[in-house]
Amino acid sequence: MPHSFGMRARTRHMFKRNFKEHGAPHLATYLVHYRVGDIVDIKANASEQKGMPHKFYHGKTGIVYNVTPRAVGVIIYKVVNGRYLEKRVNIRVEHIRHSKCRQEFLDRVKSNAALKREAKEKGEFVQLKRLPAQPRVAHKISIHNNVPETLTAKPYETTI
């Protein structure tokens, strides 16, 4: 059976709005400031068809390179035949939001600066690097009131 290959083909679940979030976008969506260099996530809002990105870009993260009154230009890297192509797409502000991908890093930078300042005042060294999970410390297990148990599989029983 033939099927369509339109711009919004196979987007039934991709573009649907969440439960109790139908209707026009909130006014706060239009009041967010975007600057060149900001990292943004693209999430198409089906209630606004103007300036909607192609379904390929839904869920992608890019960098703002141009800001206009109602839209922003976003640079996204697309893999085509094993190489990265820089794609520049213009998307209205209803379909983008600031990305939280760098938030953890920025929080860590801020906390490291505070720890470094405190350590400098006290004149001591502080470890700022993240460390992988270390092995557990050695310890002994007593068998006093803790008798070892031997676990075995139950034999297979048929009820025929």
Q: What does this protein look like?
A:
This protein has one helix and five strands. The chain has 160 residues and is α+β, with helices and mostly antiparallel strands. Strands 4-3-2-1-5 form a five-stranded antiparallel β-sheet, with no helix packed on it. The protein is flat, with a radius of gyration of 27 Å.
Please give the order of strands in the largest beta sheet. Answer: 4-3-2-1-5
Oligomer: single chain
Instruction: Give the mean pLDDT.
Output: 93
Unreliable runs, pLDDT <50, ≥5 residues? none
SSE arrangement, N to C = EEEEEH
Between the first and last Cα atoms, what is the distance in angstroms? 49 Å
Determine the number of helices (DSSP H or I, runs of at least 4 residues). Answer: 1
The helix/strand class is alpha+beta
Shape: flat
How many β-strand runs?
5
Supply Rg: 27 Å
Instruction: Give the biggest sheet.
Output: 5 strands, antiparallel
Question: Roughly what percent helix?
Answer: 10-25%
Strand content: 15-25%
